[in-house]
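Work Package 4 report. The design task specified in the project plan requires that, given a folded chain encoded as structure tokens, an amino acid be chosen for each position. We show below one input record used in the internal validation round.
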């Protein structure tokens, strides 16, 4: 098959990050893949896609000019003549479905969100029959999609989107006398809960006899100025490191990883931190509580700085155990998201589609 893989943007994060691994499975099974992005955003995902051997077509437009985006996608699909449209995220899915209907092409659609917005859920439910198959990127997303879109097993399947490789660098253990390095990686967006992390660190400042620590947040986004103001107001030991093009290297410098999100899907960054042998404190959001247990981290309620602060205190007071927890997390992720299982599951889905198209 020739597959047109339609994504919202080529922003350096979110659903664009796993595209090289997903499309590699497609190409290894003999399919041709082109990537069509409805808008550029920061464009940071283009380079890894090209390095993976993908052809990427990017529309020069915005996030809300839906008619212009639909017309562009129709033209691209008519010119490229794919056998299948494969969509990711709500905007790409809805426009891909309309394009598939117009050009009489089958559509397959990813679902990445474990908390669909009500308006998006209504639209996707209304249009659900226009996708031949829906694919959830994790168990939590599968459950949400079943509930919100009313899809059965004949229309919905799961392909966990994380391909865990034992080639990830392992973080060196904490050494006596050095500060404990706490970090997080992601867009500076309200959904990531970095304001909650700031408040938790403010609470930590009131607790005596904690070992020295520092907090680093790698990422860029609309919340930078607000977070910088919170950090400056209370003189918090938090550094906004900016965008990091080498997430594995950043994660492998940490002793503790924190994911304070209000909601998530699978959450690649937290799983990559575990793969680097770093214990994770995370909100009870998305797939995270399915992966993280007491052996490798802590799960706390979302939007609860007091609970987050207590979990940080718990780990800060036992730094000698962080490396052991990190090893347990790495083993857990390698077992849950084995690379061979990732490839095999993708091949099964592609074979299923080939039989029905």
């Amino acid at each position: 098959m020739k597959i047109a893989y339609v994504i919202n943007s080529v922003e350096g994060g979110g659903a664009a990050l796993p595209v090289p691994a997903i499309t590699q499975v497609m190409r290894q099974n003999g399919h041709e893949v082109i990537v069509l992005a409805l808008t550029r955003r920061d464009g940071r995902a283009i380079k890894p896609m090209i390095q993976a051997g993908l052809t990427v077509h990017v529309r020069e437009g915005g996030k809300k000019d839906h008619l212009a985006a639909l017309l562009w996608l129709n033209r691209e699909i008519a010119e490229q003549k794919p056998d299948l449209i494969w969509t990711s995220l709500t905007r790409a899915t809805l426009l891909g479905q309309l394009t598939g209907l117009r050009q009489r092409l089958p559509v397959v659609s990813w679902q990445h969100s474990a908390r669909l917005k009500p308006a998006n859920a209504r639209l996707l439910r209304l249009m659900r029959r226009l996708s031949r198959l829906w694919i959830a990127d994790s168990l939590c997303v599968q459950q949400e999609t079943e509930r919100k879109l009313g899809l059965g097993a004949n229309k919905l399947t799961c392909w966990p989107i994380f391909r865990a490789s034992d080639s990830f660098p392992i973080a060196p253990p904490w050494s006596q006398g050095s500060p404990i390095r706490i970090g997080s990686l992601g867009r500076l967006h309200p959904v990531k809960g970095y304001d909650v992390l700031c408040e938790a660190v403010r609470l930590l400042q009131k607790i005596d006899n904690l070992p020295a620590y520092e907090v680093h947040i790698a990422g860029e986004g609309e919340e930078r100025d607000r977070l910088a103001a919170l950090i400056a107001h209370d003189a918090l030991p938090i550094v906004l490191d900016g965008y990091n093009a080498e997430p594995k290297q950043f994660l492998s410098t940490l002793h503790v990883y924190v994911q304070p999100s209000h909601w998530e899907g699978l959450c690649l960054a937290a799983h990559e931190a575990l793969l680097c042998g770093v214990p994770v404190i995370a909100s009870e959001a998305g797939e995270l509580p399915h992966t993280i247990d007491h052996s490798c981290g802590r799960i706390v309620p979302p939007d609860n700085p007091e609970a987050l602060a207590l979990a940080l205190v718990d780990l800060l007071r036992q730094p000698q155990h962080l490396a052991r927890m990190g090893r347990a997390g790495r083993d857990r992720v390698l077992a849950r998201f084995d690379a061979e299982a990732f490839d095999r599951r993708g091949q099964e889905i592609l074979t299923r589609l080939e039989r029905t198209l």
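The chain has two domains: 2-163+338-356, 180-336. Validation will be extended to a larger panel in the next phase.
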